[in-house]
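Continuing the series of single-chain predictions for the mutant panel. This is the parent chain; the variants come on the following pages.
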Amino acid sequence: MEFTRPVPTTTEVKRPGAMILLVEDERFVREVMCQVLRAAGYRVVMSENAVQARRAFRLHGGAIQLLITDVIMPGENGRKLASSLRTRKRQLRTLFISGYPESEADEDRRGTCDFYLPKPFSAQSLSENVDRILRQT
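Parent structure:
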């Protein structure tokens, strides 16, 4: 299975109203990302850890089109979270974010629904990558 790194694009294709589950343990990073995504027209459900993310997924799972999760978090990591959510929604697309090099941030096999964005990244890069991923759905 191949892990796809989204290539930024200049084509502006938005999915207004698409719902994103954002899981990031650092409050400031989570809030800034949420602001960027909402400004781009997305609905965002924020969680600071896997436990909160599972709760949110139970409530909104049918509407969630993209999971954005930090790979390295206290408690359960983003890879295990994505894997468990996919037992409920098989084709859930996931954008993994991490401040660690890609090889260190990933211990598991990568799936075709997985994308990776290294930290730090710009608001524009986040928005472009999310647009590109959602265009593929």
